[in-house]
């Protein structure tokens, strides 16, 4: 069997979720919300199953969804896209990432990756024959600078895989960061594959800025979005891929031989959802921000050092002030002794891991968050 996959260990997400089930712990590890998602969007999907088309939809996606994606990004991010030549629908963002990497990378091409990183990135890069070059980010701000990029980029750089907002760090990169990264992409003739699934889940009045809108990036960026994250419907697996025609043409060929297409009823429902008025997206962000603040203040009151979170469903705590330097061991104690499952952030590093940070998912009801805080009442003092 191929060693890239056969030798992968069991993911920490699976381990912690299993422990949560076995111990009856509150699971704040995996990143899914308690909310079932907007009822009107779900009803559209149900209606489309009963009354709509249930055979193969077009490989590129149903026209109404591709048009809705283009209109949505024009309205919310000021990005103009030709829906017929620059927008494709995939079965989730992970499929979009896999297809993009397979289409863009030849064996020996170097790929710049930012750590901490989503766990699918590295196996997909390696399977495509890419050579990873890492940029190591550190708390509390998880920023990169010119010197860090200069060490990662080389004449062999082909692709940059960039996640913004960044899971698990909760960082939202601004214009100065994006313009710096864009300059390196242009100088090295590299294509940026941008995982922007958290683009609507940003807080504190921030707005998501897409890398594709930066100078020199329009023709060298693959922008990837996710209906699952926008509408808290993580099981739907409907992704969006936006790129210049010369790039999308090749990505479409990879998509054709991965999943080929995506359930038509979900595409119809997502098209409807993307056209919802601004109040929906504002209220969604406000609700999650309230949950973030509720949980952050509760953790701080219990002695945890809470790191800033400006986006995503996640909040991190730094264990270093407690003298704790093993996030894996801490998470195992947390689930077994205190009944709360979290994720060690070292799991998001391929090398030189930060081992003092733990991630919690706050996209939960007040009752779940309060229950977790009650169980964590003495956890920080015990660690110290």
From TrEMBL:
The entry's keywords: Aminotransferase, Pyridoxal phosphate, Transferase
Aminotransferase class I/classII large domain residues: 25-376
Cofactor: pyridoxal 5'-phosphate
The keyword DNA repair is annotated on this UniProt entry: no
Pfam families linked: Aminotran_1_2
UniProt superkingdom: Bacteria
GO terms assigned for molecular function: transaminase activity
NCBIfam families assigned: PRK08912.1
Annotated protein name in UniProt: Aminotransferase
Native source species: Alsobacter ponti
């Amino acid at each position: 069997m191929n060693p890239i996959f056969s030798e992968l260990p069991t993911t920490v997400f699976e381990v912690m979720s299993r422990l949560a089930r076995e111990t009856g712990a509150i699971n704040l590890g995996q990143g899914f919300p308690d909310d079932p998602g907007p009822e009107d969007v779900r009803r559209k999907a149900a209606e489309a199953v009963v009354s709509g088309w249930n055979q193969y939809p077009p490989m590129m996606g149903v026209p109404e969804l591709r048009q809705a994606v283009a209109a949505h990004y024009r309205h919310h991010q000021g990005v103009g896209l030709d829906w017929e030549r620059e927008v494709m629908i995939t079965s989730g963002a992970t499929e979009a990432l896999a297809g993009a990497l397979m289409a863009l990378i030849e064996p020996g091409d170097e790929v710049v990756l930012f750590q901490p990183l989503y766990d699918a990135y590295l196996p997909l890069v390696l399977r495509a024959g890419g050579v990873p070059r890492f940029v190591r980010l550190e708390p509390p701000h998880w920023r990169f600078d010119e010197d860090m990029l200069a060490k990662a980029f080389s004449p062999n750089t082909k692709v940059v895989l960039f996640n913004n907002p960044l899971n698990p760090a909760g960082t939202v990169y601004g214009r100065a960061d994006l313009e710096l990264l864009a300059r390196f992409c242009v100088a090295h003739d590299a294509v940026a594959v941008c995982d922007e699934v958290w683009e609507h889940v940003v807080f504190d009045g921030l707005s998501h800025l897409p890398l594709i809108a930066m100078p020199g990036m329009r023709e060298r960026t693959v922008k990837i979005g996710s209906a699952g994250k926008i509408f808290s419907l993580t099981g739907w697996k409907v992704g969006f891929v936006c790129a210049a025609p010369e790039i999308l043409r090749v990505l479409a060929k990879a998509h054709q031989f991965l999943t080929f297409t995506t359930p038509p009823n979900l595409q119809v429902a997502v098209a409807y959802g993307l056209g919802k008025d601004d109040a929906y997206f504002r209220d969604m962000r406000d609700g999650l921000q309230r949950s973030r603040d509720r949980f952050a203040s509760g953790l701080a009151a219990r002695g945890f050092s809470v790191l800033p979170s400006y986006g995503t469903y996640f909040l991190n705590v730094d264990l270093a002030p407690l003298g704790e330097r093993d996030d894996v061991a801490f998470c195992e104690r947390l689930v077994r002794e205190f009944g709360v499952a979290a994720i060690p952030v070292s799991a998001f590093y391929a090398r030189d891991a930060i081992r003092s940070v733990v991630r919690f998912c706050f996209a939960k009801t007040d009752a779940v968050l309060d229950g977790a805080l009650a169980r964590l009442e003495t956890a920080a003092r015990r660690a110290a």
